[in-house]
Design goal:
Length: 236
């Protein structure tokens, strides 16, 4: 069994990507990063998801990206809500260089483990327009990673960045997760949750999640957990 490093935020996408890695026979090493996000409740979700997945090891690293500011997820700036999502525009919830930092840390751990596979749950269809979720970005990082690692330089093994969700709609991601038996009630997607972790149901992430479950024809178990009714059609 080969090792893989999986970036695990506690959200729906990273959980599904990790479940796919497990189904493909990888031994999971989960990496969760506390970067100063206002929705730090997702870290609790990551721990629950890691337990469900039966990961071999779960490492949490603190990287204070909030010290730089530049995002409504790491500052007191308001999170955009109840807005049409235009993937051609980069919203204030974009965290500068976040995925580059995350993948660099995953790369370091993978090299230390002797692993050649990294899984990340980025998506370029139903998403908020983040530039570090696009296929061309992942391809460029993978090329860089193979120039920067001992295994890559020596030609022993090429490192691969797996993005199993990148070309799936949110509904397709959810259907794939359900096929794998995942428990989406464990996840946290909201950018601006309440004190108990209840979703605001108005931020981009909440709206994309609601759209995905509606298009998949499924009920979101997270809503049942917080005794919430699905959003009515037209409120998104």
């Amino acid at each position: 069994m080969s090792d893989a490093v999986v970036l695990l935020s506690g959200g729906l996408d990273s959980y599904t990507a990790a479940a796919i890695a497990r189904a493909e026979g990888f031994r999971l090493n989960a990496l969760t990063i506390l970067y100063g996000q206002r929705h730090a409740k997702e870290v609790d979700a990551a721990r629950a998801v890691a337990t469900w997945l039966g990961v071999d090891r779960h490492v949490e690293i603190t990287v204070g990206l909030g010290a730089f500011g530049g995002s409504s997820l790491t500052t007191d700036a308001p999170v955009p809500k109840d807005r049409p999502i235009d993937p051609t525009e980069i919203p204030s919830t974009y965290v500068p260089a976040r995925n580059t930092v995350f993948l660099a840390l995953a790369l370091g751990w993978a090299e230390a483990l002797g692993a050649h596979d990294i899984f990340i749950g980025v998506n370029a269809l139903d998403y908020s327009g983040y530039p570090d979720c696009r296929p061309e970005y992942i391809e460029a990082f993978e090329r860089m990673a193979n120039l920067a690692t001992q295994a890559g330089v020596e030609g022993a093994q090429q490192l691969r960045i797996h993005t199993p969700l990148i070309r799936l709609a949110k509904s397709g991601i959810i259907r794939r997760g359900v096929e794998l038996g995942v428990d989406y009630a464990l996840t946290a997607s909201c950018y601006d949750p309440g004190a108990s972790g209840e979703p605001c149901r108005a931020c981009d992430s909440c709206l994309l999640r609601a759209k995905g479950f509606a298009e998949a024809g499924l009920s979101d178990p997270l809503l049942a957990r917080f005794a919430m009714k699905p959003l009515e059609e037209g409120t998104q």
